[in-house]
TrEMBL record:
The keyword Cell membrane is assigned to this record: yes
Location(s) in or outside the cell: Endomembrane system
Family matches, as PANTHER family: ALIPHATIC SULFONATES-BINDING PROTEIN-RELATED, NITRATE_NITRITE BINDING PROTEIN NRTA
Protein name in UniProt: ABC transporter substrate-binding protein
Length: 380
């Protein structure tokens, strides 16, 4: 436990982006899970991932709901001053999507294969937006495009936009598609400006999502506070998934002006696993956005962090080859997570690594990151 000094809770300032996958942070603060561990979470709503990064690394925030890939970008000094970072836990898995414009859909581009065919006939390059150059959405978007024979950096134009600007940019014709977290994929469908071409769980089943991140310096100076934050979020995540009623309440809270400030139903549908691709297909997803999964969601697997580095290497974002395992062991603070897991009775996996087969049929398990990064036909 972080401890209560002079009968005062330790205040921790945590940044978040207004996305559905910030839910465990919001509900930890709203339901008082934080106070059970001697801390008081004060949430700070941010406007861009660059803003989250800068406030976290400067110390204006103690921690943040942050893109996994962004954390490794800062750790490796990609596009910014290098700084040692700490991933404390995974906050979510699955639940992102690639959205294509209604115009493309009406021209027959509804999925990867049809988009690839359509782009061969376009007189111009298509423009696709993601949320941060080293982030999850950029890497998942590039992976999906390349899996269908589209070079994302040579046959298309990549643009970085804050999530909240995606739908407006699609409506204005500034972009042809985007990859972002919810509720923006659903919002594009609600406003009839886009269709869901692929979910992120179709690209990488049970992929990691946002993480609870902080600097290595904060983790070193306040390990008890870090364990308390993890424990509070584990409890909140478990509560969200305990019942449909809890998910419904979560959607209602998230819709408020302090958080996502959008229609409740736009959030609730995909939070409950109910999908509509905007082109006539509806389904109940077997791998929807998830926050706990008996702890399976939250463990900071070394192989997850390593995957993002392999993609940074693949797309030319790194000058040299990193020591994949050593970097992951430094960033992913499994020691702190295990302490919080013990405090909350959360089950631990048998291994610090895990495997999965992605959309192109290639298996990733962390055993040969160098070979994996160099194995792709489409790469920088």
């Amino acid at each position: 436990m972080a401890g209560i000094i002079n009968n005062q809770l330790r205040t921790v300032r945590i940044g978040f982006m207004p996305l559905t996958d910030c839910a465990s942070l919001v509900m930890a603060a709203e339901c008082g899970f934080d106070r059970q561990y001697g801390i008081r979470i004060v949430l700070s709503r941010e406007t861009s991932w660059a803003n989250v990064r800068d406030k976290m690394t400067s110390g204006a925030l103690d921690a943040a709901h942050v893109l996994y890939g962004l954390m490794y970008g800062v750790q490796l000094g990609i596009g910014c001053q290098q700084q040692a970072m700490a991933v404390l836990m995974n906050l979510s898995r699955n639940g992102q999507a690639v959205t294509l414009s209604r115009t493309l859909a009406e021209q027959g581009a509804l999925d990867g294969p049809s988009l690839a065919q359509h782009l061969r006939d376009l007189p111009r390059s298509a423009t696709f937006a993601h949320t941060f150059p080293t982030g999850n959405h950029a890497m998942l978007l590039y992976y999906w495009l390349a899996a269908h024979g589209i070079d994302p950096l040579r046959q298309a134009r990549a643009l970085t936009l804050p999530p909240a600007q995606m739908v407006g940019s699609l409506r204005a014709g500034m972009i042809d598609g985007f990859c972002a977290g919810e509720p923006w994929g659903q919002r594009a469908i609600d406003e009839d400006v886009g269709v869901t071409a692929v979910t992120s769980q179709q690209i990488w089943p049970d992929h990691p999502g946002k993480v609870l991140g902080t600097t290595a310096a904060f983790a070193a100076s306040e390990p008890g506070t870090c364990r308390a934050m993890i424990a509070a979020l584990l409890d909140a995540a478990r509560w969200i998934e305990a019942s449909s009623a809890n998910k419904e309440r979560t959607a209602t809270v998230l819709a408020g002006s302090a958080y996502l400030n959008t229609g409740r139903e736009t959030i609730a549908a995909r939070l409950m696993g109910q999908y509509d691709n905007g082109a006539g297909e509806r389904w109940t997803d077997q791998r929807p956005l998830s926050f706990h999964g008996d702890g399976e969601v939250n463990f900071p697997y070394l192989s997850d962090g390593m995957w993002f580095m392999t993609q940074h290497q693949r797309w030319g974002l790194l000058r040299g080859e990193p020591d994949y395992l050593a970097q992951a062991q430094a960033v992913n603070r499994i020691d702190l997570y295990k302490g919080a897991a013990e405090m909350t009775g959360t089950q631990l996996p048998a291994s610090n690594m895990r495997g999965s087969t992605l959309i192109d049929g290639v298996r990733w398990d962390g055993s040969d990151p160098r070979g994996y990064a160099g194995s792709f036909a489409i790469r920088q």
